[in-house]
């Protein structure tokens, strides 16, 4: 549970809401994790790719708790959220859910039978439950139901869940791509309903027309074998021998052990061209020493000629690709058999002839020759494309892909007049939207950025991670047949749509959907009662840049259907609320970096949006913000935006919202938990201009106390939070203290920003974590750099984390991380993140003569004294590793480390914070046992040697 009562302010007249009281956070967090089963996700997730979606339970909690009164019973709240069994249980629903989570590993059946109820997203409230909710809600809102608005609706889960509870709902979205999905979810699902027979009829006609136009590009070389996928690459010419070099990192096509393995063996012909021999389930004799794991392209990008073995460096390969000095090449064909099975074969001349035919058609047809010729902007996520010569959106597709994908766009446009004349307008729009989503979704698996999944022997996705990364291996797919095809995709999309229809109550009205800037909404002042918003993620996701690839295809089919949202050449980047440094490259300078300018823009944009939300809310209205971010800058910006717009922060709640270390986000700035931060619009506006400032020294101790209390409560609560998320979750109470005292000034009357309070909170919570999880004595007596290094491992539980997080930890103990980077080699940059270095990167090789050692390695193991305690322990690890236990004992005695408390404290701390599969942990353990233990006079608790999985390991704070 979590409790956040409204503080005693001038707003005592506000009726407290459930979001401002106790919430069953742990039970809802468990349901968030249950929902994240990739085998069956909520239906809106299958409509079309999108880049950020909140879990259903967290969204339901935010919606219901924002409109229900504080007196709402938590069991009733969970029951209305469809959490808990229908049968009588002992104790509260929260306790029941927590018990089930704790005994998951002991179950005999599946998870659903173990919990005794389905996952909540599959269940909608009954009519009687909706009546109960409405009656209680109306009692808090003067007899009427409040309108719930999501101003940045994105994937649509918040407004859709509001419709499921039959609440008046409004949604706004700037980007046309998710706006198309929102029309299906929020307009057509409640108003048009199930139209399967109509969709099937038109889909079949679209598919037949498009299929007839592209089947020549996928010839059946052998009777009954229809090509499904051409696994393709690029060929360049060797500078030395003139032979063709395919840019293939590995020759495996399929590696799964639960079925056939498939590899390709290349052979150079006499004329220097390459022939490919596909080996299906080869044995060692058939491979004859050939290693499919060793392709011409190395991990670093250098490419070795398979004929003369001369290497072409990565920079030159990139230059050739950029200049168009390459040829497309097919090196394996996956085909469909007549009985529905599939197989793999070597490419034949007919396959290459079909590719040439597609290219000739694209070049000779006026429509195709100019299709998607819109330039690709040079942006944060698109710059890599320019490095490979991909400057127009058509460049992201091979000629066969252009011809195939366009055939479906042309077919949809061909039948559009008939569809619009044969159906009412809403039904026709719904049909055309569904038909278009199928081809737009297929783009993800039929482009030059679509890689080949060698584990499955199947096309992968263009956006496995959130960037436009160039692929040396790509897939030309036959989208008219075989699984990755138009009809199959449409069937899955329609199944999701029909499920969305089924989940809504019969009485549900359409949501009011607008497409535009959230800072300029089409509502009168006071029109809205409740806002629930999941705002754009600062600098984490470049929504518009990433969605442009879908936008250009959607526009080709839907610009006449939705002319209001498909007017512009590309998606709107000028009004997008993100911190994108690349937008400010041309104006940065004179003391203002592009990142600073991006941050200023984001803060101003969010302030504008929150001010607009403040305007449209009625006095006493509520806004709940779902925020998932780690970086202090993001929280600083969010808080200032809320304060500037006039909201009074009334409550904060942390909730587990994501699978820890989820794919594609491991090193991102997005946290594994969400903070629900609630603000109210006062009945009487505060006079911020004439407010009496509060001295920072008076606020500082309160912020530290609030952060420490929050951290201790979170640790004791049993919520499944990582240590990083404990820090982030403590930001909420800290910001409430700061906001109540705002404006805040220092002794020289300079305004203090929220980030000062957040820095204090981070430092205070880190100390709580040290007290809770480190048993080593004398940590506070270590040098600052060693302490920072240990704290980084303790807090982040990984060697790689956000640079900003490492920077903030350094600030807390007086370490300038940039100053120590080169001199101590304690960390290095890794794709913009910070990566901690172990002993092997820091200690010179004791087995080499001193004159042969690298001067760039800072720790000399021959020294008798060391500047950092960390240097002592890392040097000892190295000596033990390369010279053995006996020599290490002599080395320790010579330096009198048996009486050195800082050595012992550092060694003990590293044993507690390092992962047990880390080389340094194993060496630290070796130092702490045997003869070296005796030399050092160690007396550690057994907990420092606990196996991974015990309560002292570097994983989550607690298990459910």
From TrEMBL:
Instruction: Tell me the keywords, alphabetical order.
Output: Methyltransferase, Transferase
Q: Does the keyword Methyltransferase apply?
A: yes
The protein's name:
Adenine-specific DNA methylase, contains a Zn-ribbon domain
Q: Which InterPro entries match?
A: DUF1156 (IPR009537), SAM-dependent_MTases_sf (IPR029063)
Any one GO MF annotation of this record: methyltransferase activity
Is Transferase one of the keywords? yes
Per the UniProt record, one Pfam family is DUF1156
Source organism? Haloferax larsenii
């Amino acid at each position: 549970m979590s409790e956040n009562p409204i503080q005693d302010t001038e707003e005592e007249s506000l009726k407290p809401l459930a979001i401002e009281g106790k919430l069953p956070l742990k039970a809802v967090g468990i349901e968030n994790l249950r929902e994240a089963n990739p085998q069956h996700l909520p239906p809106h997730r299958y409509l079309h790719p999108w880049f950020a979606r909140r879990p259903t339970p967290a969204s339901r909690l935010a919606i219901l708790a924002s409109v229900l009164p504080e007196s709402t019973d938590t069991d009733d709240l969970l029951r209305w959220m469809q959490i808990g069994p229908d049968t009588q249980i002992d104790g509260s629903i929260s306790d029941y859910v927590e018990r089930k989570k704790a005994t998951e590993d002991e179950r005999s059946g599946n998870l659903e039978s173990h919990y005794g109820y389905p996952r909540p997203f599959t269940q909608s409230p009954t009519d009687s439950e909706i009546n109960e909710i409405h009656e209680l809600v109306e009692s808090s809102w003067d007899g009427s139901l409040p309108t719930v608005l999501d101003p940045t609706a994105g994937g649509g889960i918040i407004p859709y869940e509001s419709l499921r509870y039959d609440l008046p709902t409004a949604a706004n979205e700037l980007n046309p791509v998710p706006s198309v999905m929102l029309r299906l979810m929020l307009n057509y699902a409640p108003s048009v309903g199930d139209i399967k027979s109509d969709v099937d009829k038109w889909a079949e006609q679209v598919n037949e027309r498009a299929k007839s136009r592209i089947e020549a590009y996928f010839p059946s070389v052998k009777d009954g074998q229809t090509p499904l996928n051409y696994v393709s690459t690029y060929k360049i010419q060797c500078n030395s021998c003139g032979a063709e070099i395919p840019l293939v990192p590995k020759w495996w096509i399929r590696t799964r052990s639960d079925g056939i393995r498939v590899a390709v063996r290349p052979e150079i012909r006499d004329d220097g061209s390459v022939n490919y021999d596909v080996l299906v389930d080869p044995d060692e004799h058939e491979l004859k020493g050939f290693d499919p794991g060793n392709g011409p392209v190395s991990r670093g990008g250098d490419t070795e000629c398979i004929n003369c073995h001369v290497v072409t460096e990565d920079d030159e390969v990139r230059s050739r690709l950029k200049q168009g000095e390459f040829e497309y090449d097919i090196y394996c064909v996956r085909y469909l058999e007549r009985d529905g099975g599939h197989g793999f074969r070597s490419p034949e001349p007919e396959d290459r002839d079909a590719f040439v035919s597609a290219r000739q058609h694209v070049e000779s047809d006026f429509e195709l020759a100019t299709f998607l010729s819109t330039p690709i902007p040079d942006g944060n996520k698109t710059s890599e494309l320019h490095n490979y010569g991909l400057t127009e959106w058509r460049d992201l597709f091979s000629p066969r892909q252009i011809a195939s994908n366009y055939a479906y766009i042309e077919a949809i446009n061909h039948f559009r007049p008939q569809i619009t004349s044969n159906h009412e307008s809403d039904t026709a729009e719904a049909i055309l939207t569904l038909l278009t989503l199928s081809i737009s979704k297929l783009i993800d698996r039929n482009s030059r950025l679509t890689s080949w999944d060698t584990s499955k022997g199947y096309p992968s996705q263009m956006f496995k991670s959130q960037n436009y990364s160039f692929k040396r291996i790509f897939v030309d797919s036959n989208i008219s047949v075989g699984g990755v095809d138009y009809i199959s995709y449409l069937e899955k999309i329609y199944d999701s749509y029909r499920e969305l229809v089924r989940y809504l109550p019969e009485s549900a009205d359409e949501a009011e959907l607008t497409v535009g800037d959230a800072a300029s909404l089409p509502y009168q002042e006071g029109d809205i009662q409740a806002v629930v918003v999941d705002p754009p993620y600062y600098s984490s996701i470049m929504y518009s840049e990433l969605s442009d690839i879908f936008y250009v295809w959607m526009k080709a089919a839907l610009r006449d259907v939705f002319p209001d949202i498909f007017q512009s050449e590309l998606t709107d980047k000028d009004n997008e609320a993100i911190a994108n440094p690349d937008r400010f490259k041309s104006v940065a300078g004179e003391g203002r970096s592009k990142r600073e300018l991006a941050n200023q823009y984001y803060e101003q944009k969010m302030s504008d949006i929150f001010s607009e939300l403040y305007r449209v809310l009625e006095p006493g209205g509520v806004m709940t913000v779902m925020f998932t971010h780690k970086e202090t800058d993001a929280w600083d910006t969010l808080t200032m935006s809320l304060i500037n717009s006039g909201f009074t922060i009334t409550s904060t709640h942390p909730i587990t919202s994501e699978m820890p270390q989820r794919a594609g986000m491991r090193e991102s700035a997005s946290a594994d938990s969400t903070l629900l931060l609630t603000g109210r619009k006062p009945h009487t506006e505060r006079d911020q201009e004439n407010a009496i400032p509060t001295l920072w020294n008076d606020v500082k101790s309160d912020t530290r106390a609030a952060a420490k209390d929050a951290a201790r409560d979170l640790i004791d609560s049993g919520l499944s939070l990582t240590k990083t998320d404990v820090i982030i979750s403590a930001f909420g109470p800290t910001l409430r203290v700061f906001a109540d005292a705002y404006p805040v000034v220092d002794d020289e009357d300079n305004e203090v920003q929220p980030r000062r309070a957040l820095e204090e909170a981070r430092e205070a919570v880190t100390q709580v974590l040290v007290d809770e999880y480190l048993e080593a004595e004398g940590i506070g007596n270590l040098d600052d750099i060693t302490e920072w290094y240990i704290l980084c491992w303790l807090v982040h539980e990984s060697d790689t984390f956000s640079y900003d997080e490492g920077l903030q930890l350094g600030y807390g103990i007086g370490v300038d991380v940039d100053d120590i980077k080169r001199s101590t080699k304690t960390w290095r940059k890794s794709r913009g993140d910070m990566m901690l270095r172990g002993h092997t990167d820091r200690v010179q090789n004791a087995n080499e003569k001193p004159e042969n050692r690298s001067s760039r390695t800072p720790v000399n193991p021959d020294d008798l004294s060391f500047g950092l305690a960390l240097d002592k322990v890392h040097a000892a690890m190295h000596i033990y590793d390369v010279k053995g236990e006996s020599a290490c004992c002599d080395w320790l005695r010579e330096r009198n480390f048996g009486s050195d408390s800082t050595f012992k404290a550092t060694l003990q701390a590293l044993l507690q914070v390092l992962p047990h599969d880390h080389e340094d942990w194993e060496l630290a353990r070796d130092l702490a046992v045997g003869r070296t233990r005796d030399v050092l006079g160690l007396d550690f608790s057994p907990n420092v040697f606990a196996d991974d999985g015990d309560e002292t390991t570097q994983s989550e704070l607690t298990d459910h």
